[in-house]
Amino acid sequence: MTEKFIMAGDTPMHVADSLHGDRCVVLLHGYLESMLVWDEFSSLLKSNVRVVTVDLPGHGVSVVAREVHTMEYLAECVALTMEALGIEHYSVVGHSMGGYVALAMAEMYASRLDSIVLLSSTTSADSQEKCDRRRREIELIKAGKKNMLARLVPHAGFAPENVTRLKDYIEDIGELILLTEDEGVIAILGGMIERKSRGEMLRQSGIPHLFIFGRHDYYIPVEVAEEMIAQDPTARVLWLEHSGHMGFYEEPELCAQAILDMVNN
Fold it and tell me: Is 9 left (phi over 0), alpha (psi -120 to 50) or beta?
């Protein structure tokens, strides 16, 4: 992967690009992550397709550009990045928050997207309860207690059966959280609070799409995923029976094959 900085409008974006492949997939990381989470997973894809990863603004080494990073702003940054790379059409894989960005891209740049994969992500807006929880996280960050997130969040992302096996990855994710700028965390939380539901939009878009869910996802319970599936009979679906919220770590080969099948069809 070749790394560089690209200007997406007035926002510098940190990008990695495998450079080769007739078809392209851009991988969008989740909240409190960075492009680094894709390092091993991308190796399962890049012999078949061109792979682009980015640090979304507020994460990794991309800048914190605004007080609130809306999903629409992040979508624009990704689209401008792909345009600067000279890539006209591509598939988008969004993990968790990255899926919210992918949905915004589907609404704003539908003609550019070959397909969408929502990986442990949902199409609905946050409930009032979830918005309140995000506001409490903002207060936690402002109080200088980000280390609490670094200690608790990584473990919650994995199925209990995988915690010991993948403890090194869990520690790495904790480090990523500590390295994320406080202002970036706050900007992203504000953007997620503001985001809207896009399930109907996705159904009407005509863009082929795939949902990947972990059977043991703490953040997206099975009943929530099943309701989303029931509302969208056009979606392809993959259940990961031994995964939580981090299926691309927990069952990477199954995830990669499903994504390649989507991108190449």
Answer: left
What's the pTM value of the predicted model, to 2 decimals?
Answer: 0.94
**Residue range 170-227, pLDDT digits in tens:** 888 888 888 888 898 999 999 999 999 999 999 999 999 999 999 999 999 999 999 9
Structure tokens belonging to residue 230: 């029931």
Whole-number Cα distances in Å, 196 to 21, 27, 66, 236 = 34, 22, 19, 22
Cβ(163)–Cβ(216) below 8 Å: no
CB burial of residue 127 (10 Å; 0-12, 13-18, 19+): exposed
Residue 58 confidence (pLDDT) above 90 = no
